[in-house]
Known about the structure:
CATH class of the largest domain: Mainly Alpha
Shape: globular
CATH topology of the largest domain: Cytochrome Bc1 Complex, Chain D, domain 2
Helix content: 40-55%
Number of helices: 8
Number of strands: 5
Order of helices and strands: HHHEEHHHEEEHH
Radius of gyration: 25 Å
CATH superfamily of the largest domain: Cytochrome c-like domain
CATH architecture of the largest domain: Orthogonal Bundle
Strand content: 5-15%
Amino acid sequence: MRRLFALATVLALSVASAGAASAAVGLKPEARDWSFDGVTGTYDRNALRRGLQVYLEVCASCHSLNLVAYRHLGGVGFSAEEIKAIAAEFEVEDGPNEEGEMFTRPARATDPFPQPFANDQEARAANSGALPPDLSVINKARKGGANYMYALLTGYREEAPQGFEMMEGMSYNDYFPGHQIAMPPPLVEDGVEYADGTKASVEQMSADVTIFLEWAGEPGMEDRKRLGIKVLLFLLVLTAMLFALKRKIWADLH
């Protein structure tokens, strides 16, 4: 009896520990079919443009994109003139000038996306102590990548499950580790007006900005895949030639 009781206790503790671990890491995001998946995957240019719009109109007020410059938007499909126009909508600090003073000017294509805050202290002060992460490589830095980012953006609940204690100022999210996230739901229905007329649902905006952030983390992905395919084809042809040469050489020796 004691052994049975001990076994039952161990099983109960294991179940409780598993539940606690699940709560600590959040739910596992569902795998989605992304256009950039696979050996021949590519970025959806229309989705990239929409995702850029979501970033600029929603995310950029808190999150930086330090490793991306406006000139990189050529990879999204923008022309040089379009890039100049996009950059000119923002101002950046430059200097010092001849008088030794800093000044602001319209951004140029060579400038990186501007920082939303002057420093981390200002960022924390504006976000109740939380530091919004830079989004340049956020999909690469999070387990689950694009699937996790999409799940996070669509995984908010208006109220936490019954019995779940929420800290003040936090929002409940099914997929965030611990389920408590300092960022309130960033996306709302029709939160942006897409230039191409696409319906701006939360799911659509989440998918578009996720694709844009995937591109931001690896803008050269398509070139890498094309080069990889060429290398594989070359190696296959070379292998066939070497095999044929080997048979020709050994045929004369027998």
